[in-house]
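subagent[fold] <- orchestrator: predict structure for attached chain, return tokens only, no commentary.
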Amino acid sequence: MSLSEESNKFAHDKIQWLLENQCRIPVRSTTPIHYYYKTSDTLIDQADYYYQTNQFEQSFILYSRYITLFVEELKKYHRDFPNVSINDRERVKDIIRTKAFPRAEELKEKLKEKYIREYQEKQKTTDENEEDYSKISVSTLTCAPITSTYDCSQELITNSINSDRNFYGRISIPNDITAKFIEATEQNTARNIETYGILGGYKKNNNEYIITDIIIPKQNDQTNSSNIENENEEEEEEIFKYILNNNLIILGWIHTHPNERVYLSNIDLHKHLSYQMLIPESIAIVISPIFNQTVIYSLTYDIGIPI
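subagent[fold] -> orchestrator:
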């Protein structure tokens, strides 16, 4: 395979990796569909900001998320999609037709050129190093060849993405948020019950969000359990009604560990993914009063291997 063919394949594979791994927002049918429509305005605003500041990869990801959310995910997974108003449908179609799709296609071509250039530059450096090494005269011992199944192109893909990963905007957290949440959950903590809250706030400008509210929903009265997944739909509807009525967006979540140190479980990671795919700046705060620990978590998007 020629260098040109190799670099084109690398660029194609990397763009496909982004589309398959970074551009699908998990959809919950119990989340009011109008919340997705409201929050998506923030998504498109952030994509516009990255586009205007020449942050091509970040902008491409967010435009693609917007397109995928409305063209595929909601239509396929949300039971209330047929009930969306004509005005909302037409507004989203217009954004996709006039902005999101053409810009995503434009950015795809720019990224393809960028990835081809990166691959060829790296290959040139590798070839030069090998040429320099071949000029060194040393005694050698001939050994049987060692083969590897490791795919170097995957290293290039993840390393290149890793170099661009710090694109998240700023998120401001009130100084007293921990103290207030500990006080509000004191009785549950004394009974060894985890408590879960949703972080609400608003977008201050193109690159900053501010947390203003903690919404604590009704929860299961179980030791070490703050799993809202089991709450009934009426209670979840109340949460989103409050969020929408107060013109808030969800910026993550917070919960306590009454008798453990702080960490995110597998369930927690999946829960947080649904927040962060919609608003990349979303955070997860975990508090352990007994160990006097508070940690803020955010998922990186380039770690792990495809399965």
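orchestrator: received. Logging for downstream: The radius of gyration is 23 Å. Residues 138-165, 303-307 have pLDDT under 50 and may be disordered.
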